[in-house]
Prior knowledge:
By secondary structure, the chain is of the alpha+beta class. It has one domain. Helix content is 19%, strand content 47%. The protein contains 1 helix and 5 strands, in the order ββββαβ. A 5-stranded antiparallel beta sheet has the order 4-3-2-1-5, covered by helices on one side. A hairpin with a 5-residue loop joins strand 2 and strand 3. It starts with 6 loop residues before the first strand and ends with a strand.
Amino acid sequence: MMPGANNEVLLIITKSGKIHDMNIHQQKNGTWTATVIFDVNGILKYETITKTKRDSAFRSACEFVRKNIDEFAYVHSL
């Protein structure tokens, strides 16, 4: 992420090749929110994680992906 930027979009690529999204952005109150957008059997779902630091939000979102979507998924910056 570029210095001073407060938004980032990432791709989550599963072992089977499915692609999902992760958005990380800073709220007006200074907290960071990571939202994982994914589908389960064709139904769109999301998980939102809010932390005080960007890295904590990112790590927690990655843990969610590995535990709930695919433990072998890769997260790539666009």
